[in-house]
Amino acid sequence: MSAAAYFSSSGSALGADLFVLDELTGEAVIAAKRINSKAAAAGLWGGLSVVSLVLSMPDRVILSGIRFRGRHGVSAEERATGGSYSVDVEMTCDLSAAIASDSVHDTVDYSAVHRLVMQLGRERSFHLLETLAGHIAESILERFPVESVTVRIRKLHPPLDGIVEYAGVEITRHRSKFSKG
Hints:
The protein is of the alpha+beta class.
């Protein structure tokens, strides 16, 4: 969206629906359900909160809840017996070509990303979730046309005293900061 003016449905820019003024038709189009303080600096214009966004909203390809059994952990026992893991991957990229062509060749093939996550999670063994997440992020940046990737890993029911649903990490890596070796 390249519109210059954004405004909210309430008198406040925060916690409101976000609308975009379509440059061609002049109509207000809903763009997001919530605005947060990181995304917006609000000013007043004609009784409406005007929000200027520095960057347009990025397109994302999302895989959520990729589950597998893996052999990751600090202790030798954890690596020997294995555990259950859940991974989310969010990749930012320009999806304009895919929208126009309706071709998988113009987007990130999420089935290939899924295979990569499953392969790294099942076939490799790491002491730390951080290391697994880093390898997944690096591999995605090497193989796919994305600007950034966020990887969320949850070790389900980790071997801790009491009942713990999961232990996890989240990392984000950007192509501009990515370098091999």
